[in-house]
Request: fold
Amino acid sequence: MTQKQRRIYRNVRALLERHTPLRVDCGVLCGRACCRGDAETGMLLFPGETTPFSVTEKNGRRLAVCGGRCRRSDRPLSCRLFPFVPLPGPDGKIRVVPDGRGFGVCPLVRHAEAAAFSHRFLHRVRRAGALLCRDGDCRAFLEAVRRETAQQEALRARFSKK
Ligand code: SF4
Ligand code: SF4
Reply:
């Protein structure tokens, strides 16, 4: 991790330390479904991001595998952003979109039209994206996630028509 990434990650962690997708604890809705990952579905780590959890690799990406419990201050960046991810568009604007993993596990993503998301949280996720994009490796990482997200959306749209 570079000095610049260390500084950015510290700021992003602080930005999202106490803010959550809803004003209430959404974990009671689903039994904390997003914390029941395994070695295949751990949380994506950003470039150089360190974690106290074990780390596995999948498709060239590093994933943190936590066992379903953590100290809040130890959460990886992806956990703080979940169920969203801030993605830089080709126009340079940051768009907050559902994390691809959320479609399988998160009721807030599956029923987004009915969810009363915290505007403050969404605003902070967008600000986090802007901060992360100040680092070239993080921007490239998020651009790759954007391309994958677009492919997943295209697939979902294709199969939902059948
Ligand atoms: S799966 Fe979604 S609703 Fe459940 S705890 Fe995670 S973010 Fe909240
Ligand atoms: S690190 Fe914490 S917040 Fe993230 S998936 Fe594990 S238990 Fe959930």
The pocket of iron/sulfur cluster (ligand 2) is lined by residues 34-35, 37, 43, 66, 68-70, 75, 79 (CB under 6 Å). The chain has a mean pLDDT of 90. Strands lie at 43-44, 54-58, 61-65, 84-88, 94-98. DSSP finds seven helices and five strands in the chain.
